[in-house]
Prior knowledge:
Blueprint: H1 2-24, E1 34-41, E2 47-48, E3 53-54, H2 60-65, E4 75-84, H3 91-106, E5 112-116, H4 122-132, E6 139-142, H5 155-166, E7 177-180, E8 183-186, E9 190-192, E10 201-203, E11 229-233, H6 241-248, E12 253-258, H7 266-277, E13 281-286, H8 302-305, E14 307-309, H9 315-326, H10 332-341
Parallel strand pairs: 1-4, 1-5, 5-6, 6-7, 11-12, 12-13, 13-14
Antiparallel strand pairs: 2-3, 7-8, 9-10
Helix pairs in contact: 3-4, 4-9
This protein binds succinic acid.
Succinic acid binds next to loops.
Amino acid sequence: MKHRLQFFAFLTLTVMLFATSCQKNETLSGPLPKVHIIATGGTIAGASTDIGYDAGKVSIETILQAVPELKQYAELDYEQFCNIGSQDMNDSIWLSLAKRVNQVLESGKYDAILITHGTDVMEETAFFLNLTIHDPKPVILVGAMRPADAEDADGPYNLLTAVKAIVRPEAVGREVMCCLGGKIYEAGAAFKNDTHSIDALSATSVDWYLPHNANTGFYTDNLEELPEVGIVYCYGSNSTVALEAFINAGYKGIVLAGVGDGNLNQETLDLAAQAVKNGVMIVRSSRIPFGGVYTEGGEVDDEKLGFIASGSLSPQKSRILLMLALTVTQDIDTIRSYFQNGVYR
Ligand code: SIN
C-alpha cells in the first residue's frame, strides 16, 4: 500500500510540475512544432439549445477560429473524425480512432496529436489509446464543460493549455494525456468526478505507469471488433438480473463494480463463480474511485473462485484492459499479471 501512495504522490507532483512549466512557456524559438488535431465532438463542440445544449454540433474549423493564439505555439492542421457526444463513443470508434492516430504518427509529419473529445468518457478513450498507440510523440485529449457558443466557454483556454503542453520536450514518452480546467492528467489516473464543474477531471491513485510507446502487444491494425465485455454495477440488495443477462448474451468477460473493496453479495458471487467455470473471464473491481481492489487482505478468494482483481483500475478502465487482453490471450494468469503489473512485453 505504501509504495502505491508514494507513487501517487510522485505522479501528482510530476503532473503539477508539468502543468506549471506549461503555464510558464509563453514563447518558443525555432520552427513551430506540427500538431494534428482530430476532432470527435463533445461539449467543446457543443451548441446551445432551449433546454441547455447539444454536444458534438460545432465544426473543428469554427472551434479553432475562436482561438487564434494557438498559431503562436504550433502549426496546426485538423480533421473532423466524427462529431458526437462522448456518451456515443463505442468500441468500434475506439478501434478506428486508434488506427487513425497510429497512422498519423507513423506518417512522421507531426510532432504531436490533439484530440477534441467529450469529457464523459474521455478517461476511457485516453486509456484505450494509451494501450494501443505505439509511438512516444505526445497525444492529448481536450474537452470542455461549457458549449462552444457559451459566453464563458472553457474550450479555448483548454485548447491553449493543451497545445502549450504538448509542444514541450517533457511531453514526449508519457501516457496519453487529458486536458480540462486548465490542468493536465495522464490516462491511467484520470477520471471524471464532477458532473458540472469546469474542473471535472481528477486523478486517482495508480499502481502502474505505462507510457504509450511501451510494448503492450495490443495492435488494432487487424482488429475489426473487440470481444464483448460488460460491467455490472453492484449495490445494496443487489439483483443478479444484469449479470445473468450478460452471461446469457455470451459476453466473454464481465467486470463487477463491487461495493467497497470489490465485495459482492452471495448470489452475485455464486453466479460469477459459475460463469468462470463456463469460460467467462470475471474481473472484480469497485464502484469506489480510490484504493483499488486486491486479492491480498480482502474477503474474496479470487484464486479459488477464478476471479481477477482489478488493482487500481476502475470498472470502466478494467473493461478496456480486459477487452484488449482477450484479443491476445485466454490465459487467466497472464491477464492477472496485466492488471497487477501493467502490460509490458
Ligand atoms: C460529452 O462527453 O460529449 C458531453 C459532456 C462533455 O463533453 O463534457
